[in-house]
Amino acid sequence: MEAKVISSGQSYITLPAGYIRPESDRPSLSEVSDCENVPLIDLGLQDKHLIIQQIGDACEQYGFFQVINHGVAAETMEKMQQVAKEFFNLPVEEKMKLYSDDPTKTMRLSTSFNVKKETINNWRDYLRLHCYPLHKYSSEWPANPPFFREIVSTYCKEVRELGLRLEEAISESLGLEKDCIKEILGEQGQHMAINYYPECPQPDLTYGLPGHTDPNALTILLQDLDVSGLQVLKDGHWLAVKPHPNAFVINIGDQLQALSNGKYKSVFHRAVVNSNKARLSVASFLCPHDCAMISAPKKLIQDGSQAMYRGFTYPEYYKKFWSRNLDHKYCLENFKTT
């Protein structure tokens, strides 16, 4: 059986042709600078007003920030990374039992982004899991490695609590009631992508993931401390976001950009790959309930400013997001009112 995934144990001396980007669409790694002033927010501070202000500033100016003292136990984070590595180190025959290129499946191993639509693939394999409610989905998760379900369940619960607290702070930073955004989003879905980027012979010719915005409300990213790869677009320049110990990177997604009436930016970001080391990241996504109507609260448009986006539901949005290639920019543009 030929493995469809790139975490097959095979090493590559040159990049296979199906992964090579045209010259106009390569990462230009020599032009990337380090992001020196990534907003790093200490959620353990006593001054809650300062935290809310810092979060609001980061959402408006960057579209992302890092958090420390966030309430997710360091042991939970370490175990999550360890069990993720163990999964991708399994024999390829074992992993391929979970393979699917059907994006509607609630648990699947896959590769690239949307292999049915792409002409050029991305240097990434990933395990995609639905995580909420846990009792509905955890039984379909991998039983190998041992303790996978137990460790990932604990991680999912702690990360969800963090995400909901951050949504409260984001809501207050917009001058809204603490629960306003959570009430609009309804009982939120939760997904996870455990991303694995094997070492790559020619990182300057391909992407782990090309530039994109996240289609969900909020992304909570656990980065590999040993290998950086996350880059964000700021003022027209790509900046590398170095991992910070025991921190999460928080991305504003398209749904929160729409809810903030465009004040907060869904950050354009990408993943690049490394020639010497594999990289792993764990992205957790909070998503609106299928019945939620996404539109800016009246308080944000009562001064006479127009709603930037028409109301829409997440399934309507997600269908459009998945029906295109990842590198077709800004899905949210399809929902603008003008």
Quick gist of this model?
The protein is built from eight helices and 13 strands.
Give helix % range. Answer: 25-40%
Low-confidence stretches: none
Count the strands? 13
What composes the largest sheet? 8 strands, mixed
Count of alpha and pi helical runs: 8
Distance between the termini: 51 Å
Strand content: 15-25%
Q: What order do the strands of the largest sheet run in, or round the barrel if closed?
A: 2-3-11-8-13-6-5-4
- Supply Rg: 19 Å
Shape: globular
Average pLDDT score: 93
Order of helices and strands: EEHEHHEEHHHEEEEEEHEEH
Structural class: alpha+beta
Domain Fe2OG dioxygenase: 188-288
Cofactor: L-ascorbate
Catalytic activity: salicylate + NADH + O2 + H(+) = 2,3-dihydroxybenzoate + NAD(+) + H2O
InterPro entries: DIOX_N (IPR026992), IPNS-like_FE2OG_OXY (IPR044861), IPNS-like_sf (IPR027443), Oxoglu/Fe-dep_dioxygenase_dom (IPR005123), Plant_2OG-oxidoreductases (IPR050295)
Explain how this protein is built.
- It is a single chain.
- The chain is an alpha+beta fold and 338 residues long.
- The protein is 25% helix and 19% strand.
- The chain is built from eight helices and 13 strands.
- The strands form two sheets. The chain has an eight-stranded mixed beta sheet.
- Helix 1 (48-61) crosses helix 5.
- Keywords: Dioxygenase, Iron, Metal-binding, Oxidoreductase.
- Its cofactor is L-ascorbate.
- GO terms for molecular function: dioxygenase activity; metal ion binding; oxidoreductase activity, acting on paired donors, with incorporation or reduction of molecular oxygen.
- InterPro entries: DIOX_N, IPNS-like_FE2OG_OXY, IPNS-like_sf, Oxoglu/Fe-dep_dioxygenase_dom, Plant_2OG-oxidoreductases.
- This is Protein DOWNY MILDEW RESISTANCE 6.
